[in-house]
Amino acid sequence: MEQVIEVQALRREYVRQTRLFRSGKKVVKAVDGISFSVARGEIFGLLGQNGAGKTTTIKMLTTLLAPSSGECRVLGYRSFGEEKKIRPRINFIFGGEMGVYRRLSARDNLHYFSNLYLLSRAEQAKRIDAILKLVDLADRADDLAETYSKGMIQRLQIARGLINNPEILFMDEPTVGLDPLGARMLRDIIRRLREEGRTVLLTTHYLAEAEELCDRMVIINRGKLVAGGTPAQIKGDCATLEDAYVRLIEEDKP
Ligand SMILES: Nc1ncnc2c1ncn2[C@@H]1O[C@H](COP(=O)(O)OP(=O)(O)O)[C@@H](O)[C@H]1O
Ligand SMILES: [Mg+2]
């Protein structure tokens, strides 16, 4: 099986200025030596409490942030140093971000973003039609985005993330703030991406969602890995994944 993401002993520290003393500095170990890999075609979950280090990990994988140490490979290339090889072949959506233009329609948004990738007009139109259908926005494609529900905006963000036909899509909290129907629709779309052979790495706080959606996952806490495997493996003898999660986090208290 081809491993499209390989993370080995990955670390990232932030130096934070303390407020009290101007010269004071505190080193935050945001990601503290995690290792995991993701196979092509998997839906892979990154779970953990607020501040666990999920977003920092995704930022390193998507070439936006340099690791302090360790290995971070995407599609066989180093995410820092060989990022030009990776960027055309991946895309990412950070939850809660306003990454689309409200005064444009879904279709015009997608035309705008696809201009950043060198596609012919005909190719653009064809791909955009297919993506609009995939994210269930075809019937509203020509209405302004400002008339969309939160769920529709979120689906438009995904559409934007698909414009370069990425092999791997990274999603940081894709269903945050969505109502149950909106979240379910989004999960359906994520499964459609897997059917197309894409790999999806996502973070979520919703354990039922992770259980339903993810082929495999890791749980990180305070920058370190506390569990990894299929939902069933992590659940073990606990009744629910949530029970297992709570137990793992409690046991890891400093
Ligand atoms: N730019 C930054 N500067 C200093 N500390 C940061 C920065 N970004 C994140 N952190 C800290 O790193 C830790 C991990 O944050 P983050 O990766 O955003 O976690 P998560 O996405 O799991 O909530 C937290 O303690 C957070 O406060
Ligand atoms: Mg985060």
Protein model, in words:
- Strand 7, helix 6 and strand 8 form a beta-alpha-beta unit.
- 34% of the residues lie in helices and 28% in strands.
- A 6-stranded mixed sheet has the order 6-7-8-3-9-10, sandwiched between helices. Strands 2-1-4-5 form a 4-stranded antiparallel sheet.
- It is globular and about 55 Å long.
- The longest helix has 16 residues.
- The chain has one domain: P-loop containing nucleotide triphosphate hydrolases (Rossmann fold), CATH 3.40.50.
- It is built from 9 helices and 10 strands.
- It is an alpha/beta fold.
- The site of magnesium ion has 3 residues, from helix 1.
Q: Quickly count the domains.
A: 1
- Unreliable runs, pLDDT <50, ≥5 residues? none
Based on the structure, what is the oligomeric state of the protein chains? Answer: single chain
Computed CA radius of gyration, to the nearest angstrom: 19 Å
Structural class: alpha/beta
Number of helices: 9
Strand content: 25-35%
| Name of the CATH class | Alpha Beta
Main beta sheet strand tally, sense and closure: 6 strands, mixed
The CATH homologous superfamily name equals P-loop containing nucleotide triphosphate hydrolases
Helix content: 25-40%
Q: Could you give the order of the helices and strands?
A: EEEHEEHEHHHEHEHEEHH
Distance between the termini: 37 Å
As laid out across the biggest beta sheet, the strand order is 6-7-8-3-9-10
Question: What overall geometry do the principal axes of the alpha carbons give?
Answer: globular
CATH topology group: Rossmann fold
